[in-house]
Amino acid sequence: MSASSGSVIWAVRGGKDNFGLVVGMEVDLFPVPRLYGSGLYFPGEATAEVLHAYADWSRHAPEEMSSSVLLAQNPDLPGVPEPLRGRFVTHLRFAYSGATAEGERLVRPLRDLGPALLDTVRDMPYAEVGTIHHEPTAVPYLAYDRNLLLSELTGDAVDAIVALAGPGAPFITELRHFGGAYARPPKLPNCVGGRDATFSLYTGAIPEPGTLRRRDDLLARLRPWSTGGTNLNFAGVENTGPDRVSVAYAPADYDRLRTLKARHDPDNMFRINFNIPPKAGPDRSWLD
């Protein structure tokens, strides 16, 4: 380990594969034997009511509650649960790490919106956490991903989402609630950005011109509430240029990443990725 290893490790924690390949690591685990969570699935005609209620509810959710919502047309296939088969569904997802009784109390206002097509929210062992999103894992799917970070989810923003991503939309849309510890500076420094966002909005669309136009219309309508940033895990590969990658980081962090890149990978060997190009100019090794 060289004297500069600390800076490189900082860069790897958020800079993805621009600074090398991780071939091994140790991960500390937290003792979480159980949690309260899973999903409420509402019919497409309830999307506006449910999404407005969820936006209001999320403003008061405690840090122990993680939540998201998926808007999607389910295929009419045997592998889809019968109540959801062939239907557009608004799927609320929860994971609460506190007491079951408190989790039930927190979820109740959304449960009370009306009969759900399917209610799987329950106390569960942590080993079943993958059932919360209930996404297919055996078969890959082709999609163009895009991501927008939102500073807030206002009523007007919800209306825009319902109009363009609600029933009849030819793509899926997901909102993930941020905040909590993610909004605070980490104890172990890293360059992960987007900490000023309240929500992450993701779209997954098939590469068909009409579908992509409608998706782009949605993203344009939501610009007034955008932080200007993105999360590279959901940004997709349509645009991996510096203009897209740079907004995933705080400006000072992106400048430091480019400086470290110039020092450790001046020829940009690690470039088949969301690339951070080396910074041209005088040596700034004092940053190490």
TrEMBL record:
The keyword Flavoprotein applies. The keyword Ubl conjugation does not apply. Its cofactor is FAD. Keywords: FAD, Flavoprotein, Oxidoreductase. Residues 245-277 form the Berberine/berberine-like domain. One of its GO terms (molecular function) is oxidoreductase activity. This is Berberine/berberine-like domain-containing protein. It comes from Acrocarpospora corrugata.
